[in-house]
Design a protein that fits this description.
The protein is of the alpha+beta class. Helix content is 29%, strand content 21%. The chain has a single domain, classed as Isoleucyl-tRNA Synthetase, domain 2. The protein is built from eight helices and 14 strands. Belongs to the class-I aminoacyl-tRNA synthetase family.
């Protein structure tokens, strides 16, 4: 944290046709039927090089989200109203704004996070063809887009939440998450850190015996250590930049995602 705005990379996770016939998805199904534009969840990340390890995408069940028309690119983004306002005032790849009219917000629909749970998505670079939106109770709606993509190999929060959903049927049931949305999703090793193995978040959570979000101090220690070591000492072990240092691969992968139309920058 320093002077000036924080740069985030928004990753575009495409909404696929929901197959479970759930009434909570009625609004999303209507949006998909009505518009030709692709609909994306747009989690904000500081670690674009970890996108190979995505296993799911998180929303806050009580959070408020909207579907926003991004007319500069003809896409629909699912995000918080706050971040939609921010984007509408930001330039898209140097010239136009995300919404052609500066500051104009085009909200097509609003949702609670609960109405967005259990949706199938296609995430760029992920090993799994289809991943699901799941609940994460520690999301802050005042940061990024209110959507977080999950990389349990390298982010302790993501690992703790995914593991809790896999281990606790009651937790799944409370949020209408079925077994097929969590059970097939094993941690994907993507970055090797000397002394931490190839899934540093799992290593630290096991070493410190972290079992839930109640272990706040230990979770903070795990986060501090994995983030610092991952960036400074991590070596990519997957993808076209396998073998490179994380600090070297990160800017390259970020640029590749942006050029492929799979990501964009967001400042706040
Ligand atoms: B990061 P900072 Cl692998 N609420 O992405 C809570 N957490 C949020 C959020 C929100 N509204 N918006 C983004 N985030 C998460 C990947 C990742 C991230 C890895 C390792 C570390 C890491 C996969 N999740 O973050 O407070 C997102 O998780 C280290 C802090 O703005 C985002 O990057 O600095 C990061 O927190 C942004 O946190």
């Amino acid at each position: 944290e320093g002077v000036g705005p924080q740069e985030y990379v928004l990753i575009k996770l495409k909404v696929l046709q929901p197959g479970h016939g759930q009434s909570r998805h009625a609004k999303m199904e209507a949006i998909l039927a009505k518009y030709d534009q692709p609909v994306y969840f747009v989690p904000a990340t500081l670690r674009p090089e970890t996108m190979y390890g995505q296993t799911n995408c998180f929303v806050l069940p009580d959070g408020e989200y909207g579907a926003y028309m991004i007319d500069a690119t003809n896409e629909i983004f699912i995000m918080s109203a706050r971040s939609a306002r921010g984007l509408s005032c930001q330039s898209y790849q140097g010239n136009e704004y995300f919404t052609k009219e500066f500051g104009k917000i085009l909200c097509l629909e609003t949702f609670t996070g609960s109405e967005l749970l259990g949706l199938p998505l296609k995430a760029p670079m992920a090993k799994y063809d289809k991943i699901y939106t799941l609940p994460l109770l520690t999301i802050s709606m005042g940061k990024g887009t209110g959507v977080v993509t999950s990389v349990p190999s390298d982010a302790p929060d993501d690992f703790v939440s995914l593991k809790a959903l896999q281990d606790k049927p009651d937790f799944r049931a409370k949020y209408g998450i079925t077994d097929d949305m969590v059970m097939p999703y094993e941690v994907v090793p993507i970055i090797t850190i000397e002394g931490y193995g190839d899934a540093s978040a799992v290593f630290m959570c096991e070493k410190l015996k972290i079992t839930s979000f109640n272990d706040k101090a230990k979770l903070q220690q795990a986060k501090d250590e994995t983030y610092l070591k991952g960036f400074n000492m991590g070596i990519m072990k997957v993808g076209s930049h396998s073998g490179k240092k994380v600090s070297d691969a990160k800017p390259i992968i970020k640029q590749e995602l942006i050029l492929a139309g799979q990501a964009c920058l967001y400042f706040e």
